[in-house]
Structures are given as C-alpha cells and as structure tokens.
C-alpha cells in the first residue's frame, strides 16, 4: 500500500485545507493508531487509523471518470455567475471530484474527473507526453502544406511549441470551411485555437475527442463513465509512472 503524508490524507478527506491540517498535527489534535503525532513528515497508508479531535478519519475512495463535456459548460467545480459546471453532472457521486486540466466554455469533449491529485498532476504535466486529440471546424479550406508549421513546431506568444500531428479530414468548398484533426501533448491556454489561427484558419467549433488511448465512443454530451482499473494503469504507464 502506498504511503502518503498525514496532512495530505487529512486534506483529501475534506476535514481541512492542507495548511490547516498541518496546524492540527503540530498542535496535537491528531493521533495515528492511538499514538499522538505532531511531526509533519509522518506518512500513513490505508491500514493506519487516523483520528482528528476524537473523530476517526473517513477517507475518500479514489475515483476516476471520463466525462463528455458539452459546449456551454465551465471546467470548474463551481461558478460565481451560476453557469453550469462539470461537477453538475456528478450529483450522485459523494467524493469531491476535480477536472484534470480544462476545456474552454465553448469547447466540447473528453475530460477526466478525479479526486486523486497525484494522478491529475501526472496527466497534466507536459513532460509525460500524453497525446490529446482534437477535431476542429475551421474557417477556410487549408491545403495540407499550409498546416506544415504546426507539424514542425510553431511559435505562439513567443514560445516554440512541440511538433503536432495535423491533418485535414474534410473540406466544404461551398461553405469555405474544413474539419481539421490536431494532436498535441501540451496543454497551454487556448492552444489549439491559437495554433490554427496562426496559420490562417480560425476555429469555428472545437472538440477534444481523445486523451491518450481514451475516446468518447459510446458517450453523448453530458454522459460519463468510470475508468477501469486497466485504463488507469495504462494511463499511469503512459506517463512513465
């Protein structure tokens, strides 16, 4: 069983923030297996009994879901303007879920929801090179060669981006639009929109259709499903864990 720092376990259980959990430990409010613990470096695993102010700690089961986010939904746990957020689709789930990364308000597609912070960080970190596949409807009809800068690594906002896979799936010469598939492993703010605009083809509609080997097969906007143990293992393996 994996060990985690005591303050992190307390925070994940929803008792207090990480900093408040540290204060609870150092001020003598926490016991582990009946013994008072005041050292912040203490690590515990699932077999340890943690008690805070006399109340046994109830640990959240780690949960992993794949959500098909519709357009017009905020990638956040709440919104002060009352707009629909991704967590609104999980009213029947007791654990506190957080989105892995984000999709724009007007972008639909695949997003992972979890309460496992380490897993979320692993999935979002660009050094792990997990591919994210997008399908965009763009204004204009690009020729294959016009997407070459994206394949070579375009510079956006003064930053040279990693090479992307880019291909035209279909063209509508009458409406002067096209469908472009783009695969990247970075996750910068508005990255796909900026990349396509930079080569002269502004995005009209965007959806993320793949994350690593995961797809939206069998799901409609607003649907979600649990990730299997094998899928979680494969994602971790793809990230080099």
Automatic annotation (TrEMBL):
Similarity section: Belongs to the pseudouridine synthase RsuA family.
PANTHER family documented for this protein: PSEUDOURIDINE SYNTHASE FAMILY PROTEIN-RELATED, RNA-BINDING S4 DOMAIN-CONTAINING PROTEIN
Superkingdom, natural source: Bacteria
Enzyme Commission number(s): 5.4.99.-
InterPro entries: PsdUridine_s_RsuA/RluB/E/F_cat, PsdUridine_synth_cat_dom_sf, PsdUridine_synth_RsuA/RluA, PsdUridine_synth_RsuA/RluB/E/F, PsdUridine_synth_RsuA/RluB_CS, RsuA_PseudoU_synthase, S4_RNA-bd, S4_RNA-bd_sf
Organism: Lacticaseibacillus pabuli
Keywords from the UniProt entry: Isomerase, RNA-binding
Domain RNA-binding S4: 4-67
Signal peptide span: none
Gene3D superfamilies named among the record's database cross-references: Alpha-L RNA-binding motif, Pseudouridine synthase I, catalytic domain, N-terminal subdomain, RNA-binding S4 domain
Name assigned to this protein: Pseudouridine synthase
């Amino acid at each position: 069983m994996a060990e985690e720092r005591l303050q992190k376990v307390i925070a994940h259980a929803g008792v207090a923030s990480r900093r408040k959990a540290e204060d609870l430990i150092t001020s003598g409010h926490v016991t582990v297996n009946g013994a008072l613990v005041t050292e912040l470096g203490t690590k515990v695993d699932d077999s340890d009994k943690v008690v805070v102010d006399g109340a046994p700690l109830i640990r959240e089961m780690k949960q992993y879901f794949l959500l098909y986010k519709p357009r017009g939904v905020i990638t956040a746990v709440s919104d002060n303007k009352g707009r629909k957020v991704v967590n609104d689709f999980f009213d029947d789930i007791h654990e506190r879920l957080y989105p892995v990364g984000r999709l724009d308000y007007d972008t639909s597609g695949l997003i992972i929801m979890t309460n496992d912070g380490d897993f979320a960080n692993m999935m979002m970190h660009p050094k792990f090179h997990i591919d994210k596949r997008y399908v965009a409807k763009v204004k204009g009809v690009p020729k294959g060669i016009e997407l070459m800068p994206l394949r070579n690594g375009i510079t956006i906002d003064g930053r040279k981006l990693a090479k992307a896979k880019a291909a035209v799936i279909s063209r509508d010469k009458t409406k002067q639009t096209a469908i472009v598939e783009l695969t990247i492993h970075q996750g910068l703010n508005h990255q796909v929109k900026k990349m396509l605009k930079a080569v002269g083809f502004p995005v009209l509609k965007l959806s993320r259709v793949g994350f690593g080997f995961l797809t939206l097969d069998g799901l409609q906007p607003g649907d979600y499903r649990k990730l299997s143990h094998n899928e979680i293992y494969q994602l971790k393996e793809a990230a080099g864990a």
